[in-house]
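Milestone M4 deliverable, item 7.
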Amino acid sequence: MQKFSVGDIDIPLDGSLFFIAGPCIIESRDMAIAVAEELQRIGKEEEVTFIFKGSYRKANRSSASSFTGIGDREALEILAFIRERFGMPVLTDVHETTEVEVAAPYVDVLQIPAFLSRQTELLVAAGRSGRVVNIKKGQFMAPEDMALAAAKVSATGNSRIMLTERGSSFGYHNLVVDFRGIPQMAETGYPVIYDATHSLQLPGAGNGVSGGERQYLLPLARAAVAAGVNGLFFEVHPDPASALSDAATQIALRDFAGVIKELRQLSVCMQSIHSH
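Output delivered:
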């Protein structure tokens, strides 16, 4: 398995999960800091490692009238502040090659959205930035095809790559997760992450916004841990009902500690099974 550093942490962790978590989009400085403070508290209490995530801009919303951000520079400066204040690596999405140069100085990880996972120029630009690159598997892609996406990044000399499963299109307005994809993507030699919240989406099913089935979060996250993921990805919000994006699938911040506790315990059990 390819090993590399993300900020001050080494990925993948030996024998334990790491977590990527944060709001779907940076809605305000106070909200982002409140989430980071809770992640830091959970991290110390449960002895787990977090990478903070937050999109500085959303470019692929269902509707043209949907919220896309508070302003690029302001949101990126909030991410940089969180990295500095909490000593926590940070991740954000990029959608075009021009965004890579803008965002890279502020973050540790550049994420390629699922819809863009075959965009060669974007993958190459992200690789050349020197940042860790997290590639979301397209809803239309087979797991083994992710090796080709990773190769576009690694051809730049950057092998600091993570691959993320987030469900596959199943007809209209629905996603399913084929957990065979976890070990299949692991065959690339790169760390594999399961996106536990986007996998619950019902794309376009909410009259101009994505719906979702948050009630299935823990069963699917448990399955991903059992299937052998290296990390888990969650979107969390202090008040999901009022979230300006992905309101149907973000986890309430007050409930997140319990989710992490259960998944960490399951991970320990799985490690014990594998060690015998």
